Amino acid sequence: MTHPRDDAPADPAGLRAAIEELRRGRRFLVVTHARPDGDAIGSALALAHLLRGEGKEAECVVDAGTPPDLAFLPGSAAIGGTPAAARPPYDAVLIVDAAGLDRIEGMRDAVPTGARIVNIDHHASNTRFGAVNWIEPSWGSTGEMIGALAREAGWRLTREIAVCLYVAIVTDTGRFMFSSTRPATHELAAELQRHGVDPGAINREIWGSNSLAELRLHAETIRAIRTDPTGRIAWVVLTQKMFEDAGITPTESQNYVSLVKSIRGVEVAILLRPLSAREVKLSVRSEPSCDAAALCARFGGGGHLRAAGATMQMSLEEAEVAAVAAARDALGTG
Ligand code: 5GP
Ligand code: MN
User: Fold this and answer.
1) How many helices (H) does the chain have, and how many strands (E)?
2) Residue at which a domain ends, from 206, 224, 244
């Protein structure tokens, strides 16, 4: 596949409008989605650092705060975890990496009524909930958008910003291996390395710092994988007991569902884990034969074509039956 001029934004007007908003304001609240991943926290922090570098005030909040596995990101300790952490008034509220306003969950209470919202995101399903919307659905991470924004605005990158952006990009592109990875993705990564990023050190922080308990849960996950007779669908149900036995609560799905997806011939990989008695977190990874976002939308979720999720309002047993049936439908094998 060739990538002609892949570095140009699909929505240059959205980018310009976002920059204008950032130039004009003095005080900002930066918000991202609940159960944040590396792209969410990395993009939010990078944007806050950039604004502060321009002499502005920026506060970050995310539902329940920074997860422990991302606490190594510079500035993450200052991220507020409750709506009370926000101190309005703000000139604008910047929401990054969230396909819809519902994705920020408890932090909706941190957004003042009537606030001017700037929506910066890379989900095709984005609901355009902002007064300003900049959406790049073919870019693999929101981090790439913040990097492009900094370049377009002529704002200086520091090592802290570079680290935050690199983490955003390397996690959301699956270490530059998802099909969303563009030549421009690598070019930005190279620029970030020139600004002081140590890719080896970041790799060790993210993928080389498992506890033995986490690795044992990976082993249990592999042991519990089930496949349908065609071998095109594989899934795993992580039960409360498996978490209790391992003595951990994973905050991310990516590494677990990737294990399921790594089986040769599997086109739809499904991970189910309990959030509460009748709430199940669904994670789906797929090949082009299945639109993962559409599959998850059946359960009120969404995401990207090949990586998506949802919170299913049912028991774990019901969720397993429903998710596998939806995958069969998607592949036309139902
Ligand atoms: P993960 O499976 O790693 O939790 O999420 C993969 C992708 O699916 C995320 O980047 C996000 O775009 C999307 N996603 C995950 N959970 C939800 C959800 O509950 N609702 C929506 N709309 N999207 C989700
Ligand atoms: Mn993202």
Assistant:
1) 11, 11
2) 206
